[in-house]
Automatic annotation (TrEMBL), chain A:
InterPro entries: Nucleotide-diphossugar_trans, RGP, RGP_fam. One of its GO terms (cellular component) is Golgi apparatus. It is an enzyme of class 5 (isomerase). Signal peptide: none annotated. It catalyses: UDP-beta-L-arabinofuranose = UDP-beta-L-arabinopyranose. The record marks 151, 158 as: Required for activity. One of its GO terms (biological process) is cell wall organization. It is found in: Golgi apparatus. It holds the Pfam family RGP. This is UDP-arabinopyranose mutase. Belongs to the RGP family. Probable UDP-L-arabinose mutase involved in the biosynthesis of cell wall non-cellulosic polysaccharides.
From TrEMBL, chain B:
Transmembrane segments: none annotated. It comes from Sesamum indicum (Oriental sesame). Belongs to the RGP family. One of its GO terms (cellular component) is plasmodesma. One of its GO terms (molecular function) is UDP-arabinopyranose mutase activity. One of its GO terms (biological process) is UDP-L-arabinose metabolic process. Pfam families: RGP (PF03214). It comes from the Eukaryota. InterPro entries: RGP_fam. The lineage of its organism: Eukaryota, Viridiplantae, Streptophyta, Embryophyta, Tracheophyta. It is found in: Golgi apparatus. This is Probable UDP-arabinopyranose mutase 5 isoform X1. Keywords: Cell wall biogenesis/degradation, Golgi apparatus.
Length: 359, 348
């Protein structure tokens, strides 16, 4: 049973907020009370000659495409262009332990009492408390105030495991695929589900990058958002690809992935016809990808995230290369990403070496 | 999702009576129960006459009915205490069964309206479940929501739901140590969601507020594992936990879904957790041993019905767990006997 915390640590020197943008950062004004203590990493997509104004008072670093090319050299080809997948460059250059990433069309939501939700604070709570992937707690996250493990929950599993990822949700415009958007253009998510829960081991989920936080030390190198956008045959599968990879690796390393609170208010509905074009191939490829990820087995000697990820890239090439040549390129990009990550983060200690040993 | 049409004659509401005066319980549930047929089963240990208000379509079963069906001299199956409801399951011929503990009354939702737990359970059971991939917006078949981007299209028709596990406001279903350490802890959080518990993930089934598809999984809800000093408070039992793990294995194998979440019921104050803590805990410790077993047990392709599955689980329990402790061997025997009884009663 977790003792309730009187206040959540700010982690202001341990967390970076990574924001991809191609338009502007006006949305930051609304988030100012919650975000101002933190360092921002802005990844500017699209035309590097355009100036993106950051509202006054924020401490930030900004990278455009020229900066990415300069820093990574030939390895820059693993970072997507003209797609928010480029945000993962921000994860790579960060020097902090935790990352929170949010889209520039996401605003502060209100809970049912009308109170504004500090999404970042909730993500921090999620990340700093354990996860419970081995047995489902019917009262959801047992470490939250006002709840606990239910009768019948094995006592031997009540310590939980470290939480690597906190996946938040969205009120208003829901994150639907293009076909669903076309069929239900007016549907809005108005249901506030007051729960956080661990996604069980062995179960995959569709990860959305709009409102996401993670422990960079535990899982950072696996948060590669793939090859999307300009020159690529697919889009809107960046966060999903990362989500399947991190889930398989978290399951292997005994780390937890939580989903649920916090909610943000998603304001902009993207064009479903444009989305359909981007997603089209993915809709078919997905049917091959899911069985692949569901049956991935990582060898016991993959004890770090980098090793797991390199092994995964080999299996992607071997098993998905025949689905489309895109996956051969993606597998190569995964390797490039890890090489770039290790170059920019040469601490020597590989990420994701938790106290709990791999299964 | 359009309104689910329920044929009233497809539902049995089975109530295990552990208290003799059911008047306030039945009156509280009257608006939700009165359409349906009820089966009330009296705890064979209860000495007093049952008091049940009129105006319900119900069958009442007592110890004498149980003795006609189960020969207590040769059987180790016990219907004592919370297990009395299983006799009701044995007797029911309906497609859907809903069971609620007799110390629970309707709860109110976040808008202050009384929750029709029966209707919600039936909705859960008659809409598909999605055990093979987690939908981050929870039950995609609920009103106002859907599958999220990235949910595989081939998995969107879902599978049939075998079991619906509801929750409780006020007194939550905590074990005795937890409740004893937090005596004033009450569950006041209304989580407006139903979700499918993923395949191959175990959960603690609480018998307080459940419903199931009797045609698909009926024989799985069985009385098999009892603590030596099982009592009349939920935190003095683990029988539903054992049954729940069997049921999850069966549902996973038969590709049926198990849902958890809504509906909530309001659970009234009863009992003293500290007093319960003083009792023997051998059985609870034993339950820790069974978790790895249930997480890894696999059934053969030949097991295509719930009865087949239970028979295989019982054989595995006997072989793998029975050797270390006679309580497990007895549980396995009870399971085998239950299947025989089940078939026998239905062939009459």
């Amino acid at each position: 049973m977790a003792a309730p915390k009187s206040s959540t640590p700010l982690l202001k020197d341990e967390l970076d907020i990574v924001i991809p943008t191609i338009r502007n950062l006006d949305f930051l004004e609304m988030w100012r009370p919650f975000f101002q203590p933190y360092h921002l990493i802005i990844v500017q997509d699209g035309d590097p000659s355009k100036t993106i104004k950051v509202p006054d008072g924020f401490d930030y670093e900004l990278y455009n495409r020229n900066d990415i090319n300069k820093i990574l050299g030939p390895k820059a080809n693993c970072i997507s262009f003209k797609d928010s997948a480029c945000r993962c460059f921000g994860y790579m250059v960060s020097k902090k332990k935790y990352i929170f990433t949010i889209d520039d069309d996401c605003f502060v939501a209100k809970d049912p009492t009308g109170k504004e939700i500090n999404a970042l604070e909730q993500h921090i709570k999620n990340l700093l408390s354990p996860s419970t992937p081995f047995f489902f707690n019917t009262l959801y996250d047992p470490y939250r105030d006002g709840t606990d493990f239910v009768r019948g929950y094995p006592f031997s599993l009540r310590e939980g495991v470290p939480t690597a990822v906190s996946h938040g949700l969205w009120l208003n415009i829901p994150d639907y695929d293009a076909p669903t958007q076309l069929v239900k253009p007016l549907e809005r998510n108005t249901r506030f589900v007051d729960a956080v829960m661990t996604i069980p081991k062995g179960t995959l989920f569709p990860m959305c990058g709009m409102n996401l936080a993670f422990n960079r030390e535990l899982i950072g190198p696996a948060m590669y958002f793939g090859l999307m956008g300009d020159g690529q045959p697919i889009g809107r599968y960046d966060d999903m690809w990362a989500g399947w990879c991190i889930k398989v690796i978290c399951d292997h390393l005994g780390l937890g992935v939580k989903t649920g609170l916090p909610y943000i208010w998603h304001s902009k509905a993207s064009n479903p016809f444009v989305n359909l074009k981007k997603e089209y191939k993915g809709i078919y490829w997905q049917e091959e990808l899911i069985p692949f990820f569901q049956s991935v087995a990582l060898p016991k000697d993959c004890t770090t995230v980098q090793k797991c990820y390199m092994e995964l890239s080999k299996q992607v090439k071997a098993k998905l290369g025949k689905v489309d040549d895109y996956f051969n390129k993606l597998a190569d990009a995964m390797v490039t990403w890890i090489e770039a990550w290790d170059e920019l983060n040469p601490s020597g200690a590989a990420a994701g070496a938790p106290k709990v040993s791999a299964k | 999702m359009s309104q689910v049409i329920i044929k009233d004659d497809e539902v049995d509401i089975v109530i295990g009576a552990l208290q003799s005066d059911l008047t306030s319980f039945m009156e509280a549930w009257r608006p939700m129960f009165s359409r349906f047929h009820l089966i009330i089963v009296k705890d064979p240990d209860l000495k007093e006459e049952l008091k049940v208000p009129g105006g319900f379509n119900l069958n009442l079963y007592t110890k004498s009915d149980m003795d006609k069906v189960v020969d207590s001299s040769s059987s180790t199956i016990s219907f004592s205490g919370y297990s009395c409801r299983y006799f009701g399951y044995l007797m029911s011929r309906k497609k859907y069964i809903i069971s609620i503990d007799d110390d629970c009354i309707p709860a109110k939702d976040s808008k202050g309206e009384l929750i029709d737990a029966v209707a919600q359970h039936i909705t859960n059971l008659t809409t598909p479940a999605t055990p093979f991939f987690f939908n981050t917006l929870y039950d995609p078949f609920s009103e106002g929501t859907d599958f999220v981007r990235g949910y595989p299209f081939s998995l969107r028709s879902g599978v049939e739901c075998g079991l619906s596990c509801g929750l409780w406001l006020n007194l939550a279903d905590y074990d005795a140590p937890t409740q004893a350490l937090k005596p004033s802890a009450r569950n006041s959080r209304y989580v407006d969601a139903v979700l499918t518990v993923p395949a191959r993930t175990m959960l603690p089934l609480s018998g307080i507020n459940i419903a199931f598809n009797n045609e698909l999984v009926g024989p799985t809800l069985l009385p098999a594992f009892r603590l030596a000093k099982e009592g009349k408070f939920r935190w003095e039992t683990v029988e539903d936990i054992w049954t729940g793990m069997c049921a999850k294995v069966v549902c996973d194998h038969l590709r049926l879904g198990v849902k958890s979440g809504l509906p909530y019921v309001w659970r009234q104050e009863r009992g003293n957790a500290v007093e319960s803590l003083k009792k023997e805990w051998e059985g609870v410790q034993l339950m820790e041993e069974v978790v790895p077993f249930f997480q890894s047990v696999r059934l053969s392709e030949a097991a295509v019905t719930a009865e087949d599955c239970i028979a295989e689980i019982a054989a595995s329990v006997k072989e793998q767990l029975g050797r270390s402790n006679p309580m497990f061997a007895r549980a396995a025997e009870n399971m085998v006997e239950w299947i025989k009884l089940w078939k026998q009663v239905r062939s009459l």
